[in-house]
């Protein structure tokens, strides 16, 4: 395993010969609160991951024992002028957009508090794994703002408009078992096993065609919300990018020869 740092509080650790990248939130003294610097580092790290053709899956984790991420750094913002807040906004948007637009499958591994912008980082991933200690929620209206990291758009896509409205308007926190029942998280595991479960799932994903994974994610993301006819056109365009690729030829050959594919990734 190798590690690359982005600023003081973000690291990328590689697994599975570089095919799985672990994006690590490592600001334990602030429970990974998203400051201007942390947001900038997330944007830089996700840009590097998006450009790395070796990576086939990303896992978003935390080093803090009791929190994934508690959201925006309100202590930093307490001294902000309106101008300061406006200057910070592009860095915050770049951080969340960077996670959302990762071209490969992304998995969030949650334990403890995942609130506000912290939960929005998870919502920006494709799959959310949570352990039994996880507490999630979007409490922004309780401090006079709204979810600004994609929450008002991503949560309805995950749980439906009415349920998202109830959760956002009430600003309530949701414990792990209810979060799984409501569809706020996808897998629920025993305490302390969220990272291991997410990395194992990422390894399974990363064994598949890199061309296929990127095309499948693109079709899922671009097709969501479209009418069926338009969605099928998105799917067809994605299919064409893989149907004539080296990965398709290798996958068919490996299947017939009963061997593990050696994906060219082209």
UniProtKB/TrEMBL annotation:
Coiled-coil residues: none
GO molecular function term, any single one: enoyl-CoA hydratase activity
Pfam families attached to this UniProt entry: ECH_1
Reactions this protein catalyses: a 4-saturated-(3S)-3-hydroxyacyl-CoA = a (3E)-enoyl-CoA + H2O; a (3S)-3-hydroxyacyl-CoA = a (2E)-enoyl-CoA + H2O
Enzyme Commission number(s) from the entry: 4.2.1.17
GO biological process, one term: fatty acid beta-oxidation
PROSITE patterns in the record: ENOYL_COA_HYDRATASE (PS00166)
Family statement drawn from the similarity comment of this UniProt entry: Belongs to the enoyl-CoA hydratase/isomerase family.
Name of this protein: enoyl-CoA hydratase
Organism: Streptomyces mobaraensis (Streptoverticillium mobaraense)
């Amino acid at each position: 395993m190798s590690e690359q740092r982005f600023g003081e509080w973000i690291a990328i650790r590689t697994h599975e010969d570089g095919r799985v990248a672990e994006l690590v939130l490592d600001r334990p003294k602030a429970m990974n609160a998203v400051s201007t610097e942390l947001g900038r580092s997330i944007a830089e790290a996700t840009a590097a991951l998006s450009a790395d053709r070796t990576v086939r899956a990303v896992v978003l984790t935390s080093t803090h024992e009791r929190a994934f991420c508690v959201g925006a750094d309100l202590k930093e913002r307490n001294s902000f002028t309106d101008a300061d807040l406006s200057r910070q906004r592009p860095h915050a948007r770049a951080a969340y957009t960077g996670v959302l637009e990762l071209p490969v499958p992304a998995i969030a591994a949650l334990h403890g508090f995942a609130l506000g912008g912290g939960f929005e980082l998870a919502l920006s991933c494709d799959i959310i794994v949570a352990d039994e200690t996880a507490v999630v929620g979007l409490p922004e209206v309780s401090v006079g703002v709204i979810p600004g990291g994609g929450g008002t758009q991503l949560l309805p896509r995950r749980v439906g408009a009415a349920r998202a409205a109830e959760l956002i308007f009430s600003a309530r926190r949701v414990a792990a078992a209810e979060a799984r029942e409501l569809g706020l998280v996808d897998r629920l595991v025993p305490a302390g096993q969220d990272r291991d479960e997410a990395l194992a799932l990422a390894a399974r994903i990363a064994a598949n065609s890199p061309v296929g994974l990127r095309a499948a994610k693109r079709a899922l993301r671009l097709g969501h919300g479209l009418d069926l006819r338009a969605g099928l056109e998105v799917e067809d365009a994605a299919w064409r990018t893989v149907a004539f690729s080296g990965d398709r030829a290798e996958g068919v050959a490996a299947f017939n020869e009963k061997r593990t594919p050696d994906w060219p990734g082209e």
